[in-house]
Amino acid sequence: MLSGLSKIQAGSEYPYPVSTLDLLPTFFAAAGGDTQILKNIDGVDLLPYLNGTEAGRPHELLYWKKDARAAIRMGDWKLIRFPDRPAELYNITSDIQELDNMAAQEPELVRSMFKTLFAWESTLERPRWLLQRKFENYDIDRMDMYRKKPIDHKPTQGKVILKPQLH
């Protein structure tokens, strides 16, 4: 039934981030469907990336948003915007736990990522649930309760950190 998935070696790992939005076009293609007929979806067919016929990343940019909070992943960098404190910037490949906030050391990258995030947000429709904010503070407090606290920046001795091209 899912013939396209048989070309992927069992136990293989894929190093780049993907989105749950990619599941629909991937499973559709694996079942023999033509993904060209899928309209107005944000996901991509992952099969060419997983079986090696397509190189690179399926997404150079990934976005997340909930109320005033948002995040953008640009290559190996992740910027998190909060409603009640300064944004935080992490290099995910060298700091997977997101403890080493690099925002103060990379102001141009923060600015570029903010501009990209704002451009994406301007394309979104206002969610209807934003009219009711009764759980807003509860969500912020709950996120902070389970989140590891970042440390102040320390020099990344001996580490090579690649930066995306700024436009």
From TrEMBL:
InterPro entries noted in UniProt: Alkaline_phosphatase_core_sf, Sulfatase
Chloroplast found in the keyword field: no
Keywords: Hydrolase
The UniProt record lists the keyword Hydrolase: yes
Family: Belongs to the sulfatase family.
PANTHER family, per database record: ARYLSULFATASE FAMILY MEMBER (PTHR42693), ENDO-4-O-SULFATASE (PTHR42693:SF53)
Protein name: Sulfatase
Organism field: Paraglaciecola aquimarina
